[in-house]
Design a protein that fits this description.
By secondary structure, the chain is α+β, with helices and mostly antiparallel strands. It has one domain. It has 3 helices and 11 strands, in the order αααβββββββββββ. The strands form 3 sheets. Strands 1, 2, 3, 4 and 5 form a 5-stranded antiparallel beta sheet that branches. The chain has a 4-stranded antiparallel beta sheet with strand order 6-9-10-11, with no helix packed on it.
Length: 160
């Protein structure tokens, strides 16, 4: 019975509580540079593991430390969405801001973690890639998988 109650409390958490798993100092890095910004409230943000959402964590650079990615809406000068990625280094995080052709804001825009060792098909090059580190996919009308290589991200066009 106690397990059921704990599970029900977890299911009823507010979206902001779930998104607050992102460390506050990383959110403050975004706000410092982009004062009129907010995490996108994705319609897929659900309190279940392995579902796409607007915030994920993984090890994108293979250093065994947690890296983060979040879809952020910047409200000035005009509303637009970007993917902010925080790559761990020895003692801090490096913030990277990614854009892509389909980065307009939508409650259906979401992120999904692709685990190290997974196979991803690249429709752009008509070839398959095995991930050597965690990666992430941004979904909307098209899917782009971001793979961290040589201190930058390479894009795979991973679905039609």
């Amino acid at each position: 019975m106690a397990i059921l109650i704990i599970f029900l409390i977890y299911l009823l958490q507010s979206q902001s509580d779930r998104l607050s798993q992102m460390p506050d100092h990383l959110l403050q890095m975004i706000i410092k540079e982009y004062p009129k910004s907010e995490l996108v409230q994705c319609s897929y943000d659900k309190p279940r593991q392995n579902l796409p959402s607007s915030f994920i964590q993984g090890d994108f650079n293979g250093d065994s430390k947690t890296d983060f990615a979040a879809i952020v809406k910047i409200n000035a000068p005009a509303p637009n969405c970007y993917c902010f990625v925080f790559i761990s280094t020895d003692s801090q995080y490096v913030m990277k801001v990614l854009t892509e052709p389909y980065m307009y804001c939508s409650p259906n825009k979401r992120l999904s973690l692709d685990k190290k060792g997974s196979k991803k098909y690249d429709y752009g090059t008509d070839s398959e890639t095995t991930l050597i580190n965690d990666a992430f996919t941004i979904y909307l009308e098209v899917c782009n998988t971001y793979i961290y290589e040589n201190a930058d991200f390479r894009i795979l066009h991973s679905c039609d």
